[in-house]
Amino acid sequence: xxxxxxxxxxxxxxALEAVLADIDQQGIDTITCLGDLVGYGPQxxxxxxxxxxxxxxxxxxxxxxxxxxxxxxxxxxxxxQLAERRGQLAHQWTADQLSEENRAFxxxxxxxxxxxxxxxxxxxxxxxxxxxxxxxxxxxxxxxxESAGAETLFCGHTHRPYxxxxxxxxxxxxxxxxxxxxxGVAEAEDRELRLPLRRIINAGSVGEPRHGNTHAxxxxxxxxxxxxxxxxxxxxxxxxxxxxxxxGLPPIFxxxxxxxxxxxxxxxxxxxVCER
Amino acid sequence: xxxxxxxSGPPGCGKTTWILNRIQSHSGxxxxxxxxxxxxxxxxxxxxxxxxxxxxxxxCPGLLDLAEPDQALAPRPANLLALIELPQFQPPTxxxxxGVDRRVIPQxxxxxxxxxxxxxxxxxxxxxxxxxLDFSSLQALERNLAGSVWDPASLSxxxxxxxxxxxxxxxxxxxxxxxxxxxxxxxxxxxxREGSQFLPLQTTASPDGRPQRLSRLVxxxxxxxxxxxxxxxxxxLLSDALLELEQAxxxxxxxxxxxxxxx
Amino acid sequence: MAxxxxxxxxxxxxxxxxxxxxxxxxxxxxxxxxVLGDVIGPERECNALLERLQQPRRGDLQPHCLYGWWEEQLxxxxxxxxxxxxxxxxxxxxEAAVDALLQAVDPAHMNWLAAxxxxxxxxxxxxLHGSSAAVDDSLGPDSSPLLLLDRLxxxxxxxxxxxRSGQQFRLELSGxxxxxxxxxxxxxxxxxxxxxxxxxxxxxxxxxxTIYDPGSDRLDFFIAGTKPKQRARGFA
Lengths: 276, 263, 236
Description:
The complex is a heterotrimer.
Chain A: E1 2-6, H1 13-25, E2 31-33, H2 44-53, H3 62-69, H4 81-97, H5 100-107, E3 112-115, E4 118-121, H6 138-147, E5 152-155, E6 162-177, E7 187-195, E8 198-202, E9 216-222, E10 227-233, H7 237-246, H8 251-258
Parallel strand pairs in A: 1-2, 4-5, 5-8
Antiparallel strand pairs in A: 1-9, 3-4, 6-7, 6-8, 9-10
Chain B: E1 3-9, H1 15-25, E2 30-34, H2 51-59, E3 64-65, H3 69-73, E4 81-87, H4 105-110, E5 117-120, E6 139-144, H5 152-163, E7 169-178, E8 184-190, E9 197-200, E10 216-222, H6 226-236, H7 240-253
Parallel strand pairs in B: 1-4, 1-5, 2-3, 2-4
Antiparallel strand pairs in B: 6-10, 7-8, 7-10, 8-9
Chain C: E1 4-7, H1 14-28, E2 32-36, H2 47-54, E3 63-66, H3 69-77, H4 87-104, H5 110-114, E4 119-122, E5 125-128, H6 145-155, E6 159-162, E7 168-184, E8 187-194, E9 199-203, E10 208-213, E11 218-223, E12 234-235
Parallel strand pairs in C: 1-2, 2-3, 5-6, 6-9
Antiparallel strand pairs in C: 1-10, 4-5, 7-8, 7-9, 10-11, 11-12
């Protein structure tokens, strides 16, 4: 059986429609969504409505949480003052647009979903705001999966899809402690922990791709073979760009989306000296 | 023996960089003058506002400003290399000194300058050619940023958007920009080049309030959108309160026993 | 070279604190005293110890204090942690324990308690009550090495000193590794990572305390007021 996982829709209706059509075309009817239904994009109600209509099991993202909590900014650290101001503007606009019913829906979303030993979260099992980047410390990555008691962890939030396998791990420790009182002989004991094989699968982003081009991304997990497919889906970017401008959102959002740059990128250091 | 060179060429062809190299390889005194240039049909000259002179004087302490009337009257030092920069879109019709745009001559005479040689980018093989573009029509946009200080990461984002076309089709952008730690950067971009230059000025201000030096953005291109640039600038420049917060942090880091290294 | 004394879990016991100060004054050549939280508790009146920590006597080593699990409970119950209350205490030990804790500490000490920090970073060492994850994170010699490695990695330190479990132990990550394979839209890459040589140290509680010499990495566990067997106590 195949199972599609989507994340980070960011109120981009054209992208969501294209991804759902791609999933439907393959005859897949199990879909899980990892949150961030809204934020930056021009169609928050339309996107939430579609997720509700399709009854897609969804966990809550950091934007969904912030919209209902009434925060002025997503905790996901903004890389610059410019990104923060734009994020706040997007937050305010989205909060004004969102219907009460859809706000209640976002508030009802769980932090995580389970299917057998597969765990579905937005950021990490610890927090909706934690980024599990593909190259983060392998032990720390494994700890996130293992401490949660999962075999496979599905996450989003980074907007870059990847599949990471952590294998053949072991940690040897030497423990010394003082038995009894007063402080007695420090006996050394050597132990080895064999670490299990675990996987982290990042679903990328439907509505705000950050992988170098404008295509929406999501993943398909083929449960019979355990294979994971990273899907790229072209969609009508211009339709969303027009909607951004028509909605009165900053035209720079449309420009960034059109060029495959995320709305708030991690900026290069301006003090970097590039000698030409 | 003294020499006076007139260097002309279209925007972004590398006049100032070439001049900087000449100054740095000249053992004697040097002087610099930047003429404003004249608009051609549909082609606007950007007002440089002193960016080139400020950058060159920062890099070459002692560089004489030949636009100073006092300089014009003073006796010229021996072995002076005088370099005159003239933005000029079209190549001269005549070769050599005969090709000098006649409109600049009264200004040069008033400053007691008489070129021995005229070199034009795209015509004279002594000069590099790779950045000399043919412009059909060009807009210019200047923004005085005196006293402005950037959030560094925001400057990086803005510059990225600017040179990648978010605010119109930019051919050339250059600027002097202030950072909260007292450093200033000469930011330089040309459509024919990959990547931007961000070159730190030698002279730094103390991280204490707004610096009193030249800061300016000059952009040339087509379909420029000054209003959109203004919106972004407002989100990038630091308010008094944020500037003070950031500078207080920097001052605290600079404990006397541990001079904080430049980030 | 500086030597550190690390103590925790006094829970209002001024006598234990005085016994440690006496030990340190007489024998240990220590110049910095770190108190890793739990200076208060519900068992006894804590005000005398709190006063002593804030106003050391002549001859006392100046204490550098953190807040621990018990301070966190009291601070929460007294409204210093937003909407949270002493829920963890209430759940584990009942309402009576919450009342006893409130009784044990004079409200005049709340400002001092509220100003305490979560942790210290000294050289390449993190000094914490629980761990980098939370103040209630109880790390012991039997904790999963994967979890311990994560806690070290989060702080990016080579030594993590913890007090929450109350145990005295030194756990050294001595070897091992892990393979990682990442596939994304750019392709596939492999990476092999080794276990870094890092340690987690449990400093004990009450009269059980620890001396650490960061210069030589020597660690000794002591019990205040007792004479340790010379040959037995230390290991570098």
